[in-house]
Every structure is written in structure tokens, then in C-alpha cells.
Specification:
The chain has about 475 residues and is an alpha/beta fold. It contains 14 helices and 15 strands. The protein binds NADPH dihydro-nicotinamide-adenine-dinucleotide phosphate and ligand LXAUTJHC.
């Protein structure tokens, strides 16, 4: 078992996974539960209960878990997974305020077993991998059926889709839970590359001393995807790229880049506070100057899309962070579906050097952090071209994080689940942070929202988006 320094795992835990047969639970959460188990990041005494609407028995649900874990890529030698899966229980009938289904009975049995074995009452974790429309009803149910007290509750995204719906949901949730019990997931914050951002900055004077407007000309947070949306068209028609990615993931990553130094990096509240506080300095987006939306050609022909749909499948924005550190430095955020490539990169574009070479450098230095997969740090630097002449070449030095001695990257969901178990809230969004994010984003949900420009599938999005990073280009392409 591995505790976060200063943050022990509880002696015993029971995790209830709501929506246990759904897509997210099957593809992400169940494999991540096995990952934390394999890595020794769960207490000795732990159990999982799946809760969903489907009519299954324990045996059939265990088959489902085994298949999810196998498909999640645990590897051929994951033979001991059977031991925990054999203890998994299933509670059918769903769970709402009015009808708790089979859960109370199953939970009583499992808590008793785990508690007896551990000699202490287990911590109860509720993981809500259910459609957002069910968040409020399940939370009220936790209160009404006596399952809220002392528990931790994980909410999937989106926790609200506008400032108003966020406030309404948060009001409902807070009638039952305190802020300290609430863990709002943004899985981008669990990525190794995103977590390395502040360590890179605060542990290395080389970067820490330059992490402001005196050295950084612009910040790019670029997440192009080549994915299609055909299999998620209902969700996509209601959401679009900006709401799905910008106000959620990319704003949080921007907060991670832009935050002021936390008082104590080992204190989750202090880290969380620093990141979420800077969101309050995000200026409201200006749709006329700073936003380009796009829709890929052919989107409206997808079965399920409205023939006159104005849903955005691409969004690029120029965000301004009104703090002393970042005043005047554009944060350029871009994402879209069916683009030329799939990548996830944060780039700090540095100002030209002072001194004798200032006029000669036409390729800017960059600090790049790849936040996909296990993460990578890349330094775009200029060196003397080896040879007899004094000429210059730009190159990239790459550090893959899984090559770091002792490094064994965790997937984002495994990392965040471990944090829930230890009660570390540093990588979870707060109500104040989300309020600030939705406030900055609100102009994109009003009458001034731009009409999406059409772009060719497989491209870098609408041509208009090329202007946003001027005088530079999007570092990943076009
Ligand atoms: N899928 C993904 O890639 C991602 C999903 N998310 C978020 O994860 C959450 C789940 O999404 P996803 O897995 O795709 O959705 P799914 O529809 O695939 O799964 C949700 C499951 O929850 C069940 N459910 C609904 N209400 C209840 C209830 N009251 N009690 C117990 N179970 C219930 C549903 O049953 P039934 O079908 O019978 O209603 C369904 O099995 C959403 O908040 C989504 O926004 C976030 C990021 C990515
Ligand atoms: O939440 C979401 O994230 C994915 C990208 O996630 P990643 O695991 O590939 O980093 C995105 O494709 C999806 O539209 C969005 O809902």
C-alpha cells in the first residue's frame, strides 16, 4: 500500500459505482479501480458495489467487470484480478430519491463484512458515473436514505452546463453534502503531464524564474482530436466542442499553468486554492475578437444531427488572465473533432532573447508539455549548428516522463481515485472555480455566440483560427 506523504489511506473502504454498466464506468472507472489495486493504492480491506438500472445478478456483473478490466488493457499477467472481482457485488434497480433499489440491502451486507474484517467502519465513497441529469436526484437520495454522512461523493463531468445550471445543481448538492465531501472530476487534472506542470515550474529555477509575462509571450493549450462524433451525436448536439472541452478541461489546464505559487505544494487545499483562484482572474471571453467556432463538413448529415445544426465541433479562443503575472499574455486554447491529428500539448512560447543574437532568432524558444498518455516535457531551443560556421539550428530536447527513474505513470482516473481515497482534493474543481469558469465562458452561450465556420475533416479547423496566435502560429500545426 502506498500513501500520499502525509495523507494515509483509510483502513477500509466501500466504493459504490453508480452507472456501473455504462460507458464511462466500463471503459475508465472499472479498469482504473483494478489499476489502483494492482499498484497497491487501495486499503487492504476494500470492496466495490456496482449499482445500475439493469437487471443483473452478482455473477453476471462480475463477468462485466472482468471484461472491462481485460479490455482496459491490464495485460495478460493480471491473473490476480479475479480475487477482488469475485468479491464485487451488484445492486440493481437504480438509485433515486424515491426508490433506493437494492443498494441499501447490499451495502449493509458489504459494509458489515469489510468492517468486521478491518475492525473499523469503512469509508463510504459514492462514484456517480451517471448522466448529469441524475446527479441531483442521487444526491438527494443519499441524504434521504442515510448514506451521505461521512461519505465522499465523486461527480463526473459536466457539473452544470452554464452558470445558471451549475448554481442550481450546486445548491441541490449542498443541501446534502458539504464542499469537503464533494470531488468533482476533471480527468485532465489527473493526467501525469498536467500534474508535472507545477513541479516543473516550482522545482526548477530555470523555469520558475521565467514563468511570467516578462519571458512568456503566449501560452498555447492545444488539444486537436481526429475522433468522430457519430457514436455520441445526441450528446454532441446538446454540447459542442467549446462546452465539452474549453470551459471544462482546457480552462482547468490554463489554471494549472497560470496559478500563483501555492503556499505549500504538499497541502492539497493550498494547491487547489491557487489553481481555482486564478480562474477568477479569467476575463470574460469576447466572442467578436477572441473566439472562432467551427463545424466539420458533413456534420449535419450524421444521423441524429439537425439538418441546420449550429453545434460547434471546433473551438479556438484567446483567453486573457488579468493578473500581474500574465497581463497582456494571450492564452490560446484550441480543440476540435475530426482534425488533422490527435495531440494534447501545452506550449509556453518564450520571448526573443536579449543580447547579440536578439535580431537573428526567428524561431521562438518553447517549453512544451505533452499531456497525453504518460506525458512528456519538450524544450524547443536554439544551438550552434555543429560545423565550421557560426550558424544556428532549432531543435527539441525531449524527456518522456515514463523514463524518469522510479517513474511508473498512473492513468488519470487511477490517480484521481487514489486521491479520493486519501482525501486529497488538490486536483478536483471547487464550486468557486467552476463559478469563475462558467462566468468567463458565459458570452459564448449568449446572443453573441459566433456562427461556426465550416472546415474540412482532417484539417486544422477554419482558416479564421490561424489569426489568433499572431504573430506566431499554432505550434502543433497550421
Ligand atoms: N463516456 C465518456 O467517454 C465520458 C462520460 N462522462 C460522463 O460520465 C457520466 C456517464 O456517462 P456515460 O457512461 O457515457 O453514460 P451511459 O449512458 O453510458 O451510462 C450511464 C449509466 O448510468 C445508469 N443510470 C442512470 N441513472 C441511474 C441511477 N439513478 N442509478 C444508477 N444508475 C443509473 C444508466 O442506466 P440507464 O441507461 O438504464 O438509464 C447507464 O447505465 C456522464 O456524466 C458523462 O457526462 C465524462 C467524460 C467522458
Ligand atoms: O471529456 C472528454 O474528454 C475526451 C478526451 O479525453 P482523453 O482521455 O482522450 O484525454 C474528449 O474526446 C471528449 O469529447 C470529452 O467529453
Amino acid at each position: 500500500m502506498t500513501d500520499t506523504p502525509g495523507r494515509p489511506l483509510p483502513d477500509a473502504v466501500v466504493i459504490v459505482l453508480y452507472g456501473a454498466t455504462g460507458d464511462l464506468a466500463s471503459r475508465m472507472v472499472l479498469p482504473a479501480l483494478d489499476e489502483v489495486r494492482r499498484r497497491g493504492l487501495v486499503p487492504e480491506h476494500w470492496a466495490v458495489i456496482g449499482c445500475s438500472t439493469e437487471d443483473l445478478d452478482d455473477a453476471r456483473f462480475r463477468d462485466h467487470v472482468a471484461e472491462a478490466v481485460r479490455a482496459g488493457g491490464a495485460g495478460e499477467d493480471n491473473t490476480d484480478a479475479g480475487a477482488w472481482i469475485e468479491r464485487v457485488r451488484y445492486a440493481g434497480g437504480g438509485f433515486t430519491e424515491d426508490d433506493a433499489g437494492e443498494l441499501p440491502q447490499v451495502l449493509t451486507e458489504v459494509s458489515q463484512q469489510v468492517g468486521d474484517a478491518a475492525g473499523t467502519e469503512p469509508l463510504l465513497v459514492h462514484f456517480l458515473a451517471v448522466p448529469p441529469g441524475a446527479f441531483a436526484s442521487i444526491t438527494r437520495g443519499l441524504g434521504r436514505h442515510g448514506l451521505a454522512e461521512g461519505s465522499r461523493v465523486v461527480f463526473e463531468k459536466p457539473y452544470g452546463t452554464s452558470l445558471e445550471s451549475f448554481e442550481e445543481l450546486d445548491r441541490d448538492v449542498k443541501e446534502v453534502l458539504s464542499e469537503e465531501q464533494i470531488f468533482r472530476i476533471d480527468h485532465f487534472l489527473g493526467k501525469e503531464g498536467v500534474q508535472t506542470l507545477y513541479v516543473l515550474r516550482f522545482a526548477n529555477q530555470l523555469f520558475g524564474s521565467e514563468w511570467d509575462r516578462s519571458s512568456v509571450e503566449q501560452v498555447q493549450i492545444d488539444v486537436p482530436e481526429d475522433l468522430d462524433v457519430t457514436n455520441r451525436i445526441r450528446f454532441y448536439e446538446e454540447t459542442g466542442a467549446a462546452l465539452d472541452m474549453i470551459v471544462t478541461h482546457l480552462f482547468q489546464v490554463a489554471g494549472q499553468v497560470a496559478m500563483e505559487p501555492p503556499a505549500d505544494l504538499r497541502d492539497p487545499d493550498s494547491v487547489n486554492d491557487a489553481r481555482e483562484r486564478v480562474l477568477q482572474a479569467f476575463r470574460q471571453l469576447d466572442p467578436a475578437q477572441d473566439v472562432v467556432l467551427g463545424q466539420f463538413e458533413g456534420y449535419r448529415q450524421i444521423d441524429g444531427a439537425a439538418p441546420d445544426s449550429t453545434t460547434d465541433t471546433f473551438a479556438a479562443v484567446r483567453l486573457w488572465v488579468d493578473t500581474e503575472r500574465w497581463r497582456g499574455v494571450p492564452f490560446l486554447l484550441r480543440t476540435g473533432k475530426r482534425m488533422a491529428t490527435k495531440a494534447q500539448r501545452v506550449t509556453l512560447v518564450l520571448r526573443p532573447p536579449f543580447g547579440p543574437l536578439a535580431e537573428e532568432m526567428d524561431v521562438p524558444n518553447t517549453v512544451q508539455i505533452d499531456i497525453s498518455g504518460d506525458g512528456e516535457v519538450r524544450l524547443g531551443i536554439t544551438v550552434k549548428t555543429p560545423g565550421p560556421e557560426l550558424t544556428y539550428s532549432s531543435g527539441t530536447a525531449v524527456l518522456e516522463l515514463d523514463d524518469v527513474p522510479g517513474g511508473e505513470p498512473l492513468s488519470p482516473y487511477a490517480s484521481l481515485i487514489h486521491d479520493v481515497l486519501t482525501g486529497d482534493r488538490s486536483l478536483f474543481t471547487t464550486a468557486d472555480g467552476l463559478r469563475a469558469a462558467f462566468t468567463a465562458f458565459a458570452p459564448l452561450q449568449g446572443k453573441d455566440r459566433p456562427v461556426p465556420a465550416v472546415y474540412a475533416p482532417g484539417s486544422w479547423g477554419p482558416a479564421e483560427a490561424r489569426e489568433l496566435p499572431a504573430p506566431h502560429r499554432w505550434m502543433l500545426g497550421e
